[in-house]
From TrEMBL:
Organism: Urocolius indicus (Red-faced mousebird)
Recorded superkingdom: Eukaryota
UniProt keyword Transferase present: yes
Any single GO CC term annotated in Swiss-Prot or TrEMBL for this entry: cytoplasm
Protein's name according to its UniProt entry: tRNA (uracil-O(2)-)-methyltransferase
Reactions the enzyme catalyzes: uridine(44) in tRNA(Ser) + S-adenosyl-L-methionine = 2'-O-methyluridine(44) in tRNA(Ser) + S-adenosyl-L-homocysteine + H(+)
UniProt subcellular location: Cytoplasm
């Protein structure tokens, strides 16, 4: 709606509509492809010949859409502006007008047909003058978005939940012993039991659950964030046994060595402090500090 001479370039990334997150409507397409088609449809409704290009940038979202030419003469600008106004209102009220035809960006004739068909549908519903306010009641996102991935929760609250869940797993069943050779002596180390996320949640108090529900992912995200202590697989929570940990194959060997050296002994070992049997690894093998004296 800026002006008839306006051109545009857009690089779609996050899946948002005019007033919130974009809702998928076609399961046969990927979410990304469907969203690109939606953005292209917006351009067609606004009377543009929409072109698609792929940028040479290091990103998975690198398909851009460009509008350089109009599909109608300047004399029809006022008429098309009414069409665009109604389209915006329909998206705002979720009474979305959809186009059954697939968007073929490389065929101008088909693009013209889409625009004319969409325009006739919209102009039947809206014949009054265009509203000077494009988006009445529009609420932009906050300048500073709230972090809701459990990372901003108070440390004492997180530590309390971690200790509660760990004790729950350790006491859920008779002790499961695992052999560990340490200095030639055979020791046992309690791995505890595995429980489903639902079972774990049932043992937490209401205030804790309410606080976690306000975060994205809730309890599962908090437990995964504390990967030193827990392993969450297929909806079940386990105590992590560091003797079984293997380095990821995705990381290059030299990067692994550098990262392991930089992070070695920079945090206290949770098991050394809280586990009834201590850490399953000897001090020289554990990547975490066994006591404040080892901290780097």
């Amino acid at each position: 709606r800026s002006s008839y001479s306006c051109c545009y370039f857009v690089l779609p990334c996050c899946f948002f509509d005019f007033h919130g997150k974009y809702s998928r409507r076609q399961s046969k397409k990927t979410q990304y492809r469907e969203y690109l088609d939606f953005i292209a449809q917006v351009g067609l409704v606004c009377g543009f010949h929409v072109e698609e290009d792929c940028l040479r940038i290091p990103s998975t979202k690198r398909v851009s859409l460009i509008g350089k030419k109009r599909t109608y003469p300047p004399t029809d600008y006022a008429l098309i502006d009414k069409q665009i106004t109604q389209y915006i209102k329909n998206r705002q009220t979720c009474a979305v007008v959809t186009c059954d035809r697939s968007v073929e960006l490389n065929h101008r004739d088909h693009s013209d047909d889409v625009c004319k068909e969409m325009g006739s549908q919209l102009l039947e519903k809206e014949t009054e003058a265009a509203d000077p306010i494009w988006m009445p009641g529009f609420q932009p996102r906050e300048k500073v978005e709230q972090i809701r991935n459990c990372a901003s929760l108070p440390r004492d609250f997180v530590d309390e939940v971690v200790l509660s869940v760990a004790n729950l797993l350790l006491n859920a069943a008779p002790q499961k012993s695992c052999s560990n050779m340490d200095g030639g002596n055979m020791n046992t180390w309690n791995q505890g039991e595995s429980l489903s996320l639902k079972e774990v949640a049932e043992h937490l108090n209401k205030d804790t659950l309410k606080r976690l529900k306000s975060e994205y992912g809730g309890l599962q995200t908090l437990l995964k964030n504390n990967h030193q202590v827990f392993e969450v697989l297929n909806g079940r929570v386990h105590i992590r046994d560091w003797r079984k940990e293997k380095p990821s194959r995705k990381t290059k060997p030299e990067v692994k060595r550098r990262l392991s050296t930089e992070a070695f002994k920079t945090r206290l070992c949770w098991f050394f402090i809280h586990h009834p049997d201590g850490c399953s690894l000897p001090s020289e093998s554990c990547p975490y500090a066994h006591g404040t004296g080892e901290l780097r």
